[in-house]
Amino acid sequence: MNPLRIAILCPTPEYEEDWSHIRTDYARLLGNNAIFIDWTKADDFGGFDLVTPLLAWGYPRDCRRWFALLDRLEAENVRVSNPVSILRWNSDKAYLAELDAAGIPSVPTIWCPLLDRVALEDARKSFNVETVIVKPPISGGADGTFRLNRHDTVPDSVADQRMMIQPYLPNIAEEGEYSLFYFAGAFSHSILKRPAKGDFRVQEQYGGREEAIIAPDGALMLAQRALAATAKINKSGPLAYARVDILRDGNGVFRLMELELIEPSLFLRFAPDAGAAFAQALVSRL
User: Fold this and answer.
1) CA-CA distance, 164 to 178, in Å (whole number)?
2) pTM for this structure?
3) Per-residue pLDDT tens for 208-228?
4) CA–CA separation, 192 vs 209, rounded Å?
5) In sequence order, what are the residues at sequence separation of 6 or more whose Cβ sits closer than 8 angstroms to the Cβ of residue 263?
6) How many whole angstroms separate alpha carbon 83 and alpha carbon 74?
C-alpha cells in the first residue's frame, strides 16, 4: 500500500515571516506523508490524498490567485482538510457580520467601503471612543492593521480602501486575547496572547508573547457557539482544525475577534498531546 501524501500549502520563498518552526511541527507529526508546496505554484494535486492550506501565509496579498485556487480545488473535487466552502467564507472577515446576526457577539465593527478621514470621525462618534482600529477585511498577521488616535491621519497604504473600523479595546493589552483550538470538533488547548508593551498586536513578529492557560468558561462557551453557528451557516460538519480568537471587553463580555479556519498558527507546543489529535484529525479526512 502506498503511503499517504498530504500537500501542505506554504508561503512563497520571499515571504518574510519565519514559519520553519511550524513546518518542523508538521513534519514531526506527519513524517514523510507531508509534502510542502508553495501555494502560488500548486498546479497539480493528482498525486495527493489530501490538501491542506495550513501554511498558505500571504494569500491576502494575492486575493485573485487565492480565490482562483479555491475554485480549482472545488472544480477538481480535491479532498481538502477543511471544506473549500469554509475556506472561501473564512477568507473575508465579512463572515463576522453573519455570525453577529446569528447571535455571536463580536467586536463592534463598521464596514467601510472607502476609508477616509470622514469615515474615521463618524466611527469615533458612533463608538464614542478616541482610538479606533482599522484593518482590511481580507488580511492576516495584522497586515494593513493600524491603531489610530484622534489626530492620526489615514495611512496612505489603506486610504480609499474597503476596511473594517473597530473601537480599540484596552483589554487587549490589560488581559490579552484568548485563542482556543479545536481538532475534529473536539477542544484541544487554549493560550493567552499579549502584545508587547505599547503595542496592540499580539502576533509574535511584533513582539507578542503567549502562554498556556485554562480558558475561562465564558470563552469556551462562546467558542463552541461560534463553531456551531459556523456549521449551521455553511451546512458543514466538524472541521479538521479551528482556532477561535476571543477578547473580553471592558464590560466583561467575551467577544469573538476572529475565526481562523484556513492557515492558523496552532501553537501545538501547548497542546497536552503535542499535536497528536491534530494529526489524527487530518488523517481522518481520508
Assistant:
1) 21
2) 0.95
3) 899 999 999 999 999 999 999
4) 8
5) 9, 53, 54, 55, 56, 57, 59, 140
6) 9
